[in-house]
Amino acid sequence: MVNDMDNIAGTLQQSLIQIITSVLTVIGVFILMLTISWKLTIIALVTIPLSILVVAFVAPTSQRLFGRQQAALGKINDQVEETYAAHTIVRTFNKEEDEEKEFNRRNHQYYQSAWKAQFFSSLMMPMMIFIRNVGYLVVAVVGAIQVIHGQITLGNVQAFLQYTNQFSQPIAQIANLSNTIQQTIASAERIFEVLDEPEMDDKIKETPVLAGKNLPKVEFKDIQFSYTDEPLIQDFNLKAPRDKMVAIVGPTSAGKTTIINLLERFYDPQGGHVYLDGQDIGSMTRDDLRKHIAIVLQDTWLFTGTIFENIKYGNENASDEEVYHAAKMARADAFIRELPDGYQTVPDESASNISQGQRQLLTIARAFLADPEILILDEATSSVDTRTEVLIQEAMNALQQERTSFVVAHRLSTIRKADQIVVVNHGKIIETGNHESLMNQKGFYAALYNSQFAGN
């Protein structure tokens, strides 16, 4: 995709200017030719439809071949980027030779696509030169005949022949640029495949607000959802009370993260409703909905900029003191001040100059600053050591105070204090309760919990 953008940028910066210049030259020379002889001008114009025929013959095939070339180049770049980023894994598993073979295979595919595209497009210029010379010859012969009959002077014929060259040269240049243009079109098609993907439906549903007292903060009601034709979530019902912690647990691919995606409206359910304070979230814009929610993910992400700017991302209107307070509440202030530049430290591209746990604390500080009504913690401690997990858990416990929170966790020790634990499997709730009641049931949750501590 980057190569495609570069191709389009290059065409707009260079080729477009040359095309405009050539068009203006053709128009100016055409007017001068008419002032000398309209008959010879008509003869000279015959080369235009011939040129168009050549372009019409070469361009479609050239465009198709350039499309294959760009696709092959994209695959090479993907592998190079992937191998470079994961070079440690590649070396650890002795896959250097395999990666080289795969690169050679993809490079050969690129070579096959590229030489065909370049060869076919290179036919354009010789054919255009041939047409230009034929036109020049015909004008010279007809002009000589007219001179013999006294219909035109020799000087005018000589001048007209010069104009004929100037007239055909820009046309040949435009045709020759078709190589670049076809490559650009191929790049544009690949980009527009992404841009033309349908946007998410922004229609606001007209759903009546639920009436009554003591409504849950969030309610999932009769939810039906699937990514494919295979049903994932069926008849899902869940009520999350205000200012309570709801933990969602279950095996891999049980639908835990999908439930969070539905609450954030990254997807809309095919059936049922999700209510926030009794209002269907489908009747709210996504912007309005997400103002109520903050999320801390397993995969932390820090943007380019200082640590201070990364925390302030949660609330651009926050004061400096509010940023520092959020860092203290997230248990991040101490390690930040120990860094050489403190809050002005700029994490490198992979944020390797701070640990994974420290990165997680920064994302928690960001959520603190957002001050949400609803907090989502999705596997937030799954990739840190036990000591750091305790620190993060303290920060998350502080963050959850007086908020409705959803916690998705594989480490069941982190959700023992949850007010409500929802056990999900195959998109359905199979058990619900707190830790003690679920352990007493000796069901799915108890087996899952005991399996994690069987060696202790």
Automatic annotation (TrEMBL):
GO terms for cellular component: plasma membrane. It comes from the Bacteria. The chain crosses the membrane at residues 16-36, 42-59, 129-148. GO terms for molecular function: ABC-type oligopeptide transporter activity; ATP binding; ATP hydrolysis activity. It is a multi-pass membrane protein. InterPro entries: AAA+_ATPase, ABC1_TM_dom, ABC1_TM_sf, ABC_transporter-like_ATP-bd, ABC_transporter-like_CS, P-loop_NTPase, Type_1_exporter. Residues 218-451 form the ABC transporter domain. Keywords: ATP-binding, Membrane, Nucleotide-binding, Transmembrane, Transmembrane helix, Transport. SUPFAM superfamilies: ABC transporter transmembrane region (SSF90123), P-loop containing nucleoside triphosphate hydrolases (SSF52540). Residues 1-183 form the ABC transmembrane type-1 domain. It is found in: Cell membrane. This is Lipid A export ATP-binding/permease protein MsbA. It comes from Limosilactobacillus reuteri.
